[in-house]
Amino acid sequence: MQDVLQEIIDYLKGIWIKRRYIIIATWLICPLGWYFVSTMPDVYQSEARVYVDTQSLLRPLLRGAIVETNPNTQIRLMVRTLLGRDNLERISRMTDLDVQASNTKEYEAIIANLKNNIKINSAGRENIFTLTYEHEDPELARSVVQSTLTVFTENTLGENRSDSDSAQKFLNAQIKEYERRLTADETRLTNFKQKYGDVLLNDSGGFYKALKAEKNQLEQAQLHLKEVETRLSSAKAQLVGEEPVFGLFSNKVQSNNSVTTSYDSRIIQLEEQLDGLQLRYTDKHPDVVALVRRLEALNEQRTTEIEQYYQSMKAAGSNSQSGITSIDKNPVYQEMKIQVNNLENEAASLTVRVNNYQERVTALENKVHTLPEIEAESVALNRGYGITKSKYEDLLGRKETAMLAQQADETTDRIQFKVIDPPRAATEPTGPARFVFFGMVTIVGVGIGIGISLLMSQINPIVTSTSQLSKATGVPVFGVVSANENLGLQRWHRKKTLLFMLSNVLLLCVLMMFVSYFLFPDAIQAPLKRIF
């Protein structure tokens, strides 16, 4: 560590000995650099602040009813694309900067200047944006900021309109396409039904399911027919062992109710229905009147049947050997005979039903090789038609949603721009930062001078210490002899130091003159401008 420190001290001593190069470099670089900085034209900055309000009242009201995009994402995208080529060309045309270019190279320089100097900064979540631009002409700077603000606003609002129009065009095109496909599917399905309408199954469960259902119905009908035939055989057997008549009776019958006819059960049913209707309606109700008429007609038919029965009984009594005029009829026999007749009728109807089911099962079994293929084609056509119809209806719903969103955008803007600080022409220059440039020029001049001094001390080295001499020659140094004052070396070194200090003081004075010229413009610049 001591060796490194000693080596640094030797370098510093070498730079100090060669300090005349610092004087030369600073006087050659600094005044020229300061003059160049002082001649730089003034720059005026125009600034505008705008607040982008995305809290529209329609957003919570229409949530779920329309397709909603995130306005914050849209704003961030527009900010990133604001300095695109098309927007910069619009700004140059709006501010008449394009007319200042006489060729393509100058025009490209104007576009590049706009891209590099237009700044847009965001304040974060508050959606407050700051637009700034610097130029030598304050009015032009204000015009550029105003044009940029206009382009930013129009692009954001125009993007919403463009998206809505594009969505409407796309949906209309898709709806026409699906409408054409739906019409074609309907035509194919209609032609198919017309061609195979006589063999298509009404049941949507399929051929084998329909065949199985028909067989189940046939088995149930056959089973029911066997049950009825069994009951019919039993009833006939009972009827054979029952006498049709019993006892004797006189020419006068006490009451017709003692005779059973074929109309008794129907009359009883109608009387029960009449009792139920009379509990709910009056006697003048149309249903009550109709039911009464039917009962009267049945009673007349019953009376006629009883009279015919009496006449037949009288005829039979006159032919008997005992000379009796009539006999009593057996009501059990009559009831069983009616039951046999009903069972015979039911068996006949069930036989017809069984035959019908058998014919349908046979017809389905004969189509076992052709009907499944037709049914598969029918299922495919219906499936394609259903998918196309579903998509078509879905597109119609989306079109209504898009129209509602477009109407909402046309009614009120979801994104509103509120200018907080409009752009103004600056009265005081904001640049360039001459004091910073003055300091940078000074640092550069001094740094170059130090670098040259270090370089010359290495090219033409001078021994400044015993350790340096011992290291350079490899011979140990045992002592040091000071120069005599009569040689004048000390005076010469003092003069060089005074000259160095005087040079730096004069250079500092020159720097202060440049700084004062711009630090006190009213006190220095105004009189000089009046003189020159």
Task: Outline the structure in words.
- The protein has four domains: 2-40 and 432-476 and 504-531, no CATH class; 44-83 and 118-174 and 398-421, Alpha-Beta Plaits (2-Layer Sandwich); 200-244 and 330-369; 254-328.
- Helices cover 70% and strands 7% of the residues.
- The protein has 16 helices and six strands.
- The strands form two sheets. Strands 2-3-1-6 form a four-stranded antiparallel sheet.
- α5 (85-94) crosses α7 and α15 packs across α16 (521-531).
- The longest helix has 59 residues, at 138-196.
- It starts with a helix and ends with a helix.
Count of DSSP H/I helices = 16
**Helix percentage:** 55-70%
Instruction: Strand order, main sheet: write it out.
Output: 2-3-1-6
CATH class descriptor of the largest domain = Alpha Beta
Give the number of domains.
Answer: 4
Radius of gyration: 60 Å
How confident is the prediction overall: mean pLDDT? Answer: 76
Termini gap: 61 Å
Summarize the main sheet.
4 strands, antiparallel
- Listing every helix as H and every strand as E from the N terminus to the C terminus, the arrangement reads HHEHHHHEEHHEHHEHHEHHHH
Unreliable sequence segments: 246-255, 320-328
CATH fold assignment of the largest domain: Alpha-Beta Plaits
Topology, number of strands: 6
User: By helix and strand content, what is the structural category?
Assistant: alpha+beta
The proportion of residues in beta strands is 5-15%
Shape: rod-shaped
Q: Architecture of the largest domain, according to CATH? A: 2-Layer Sandwich
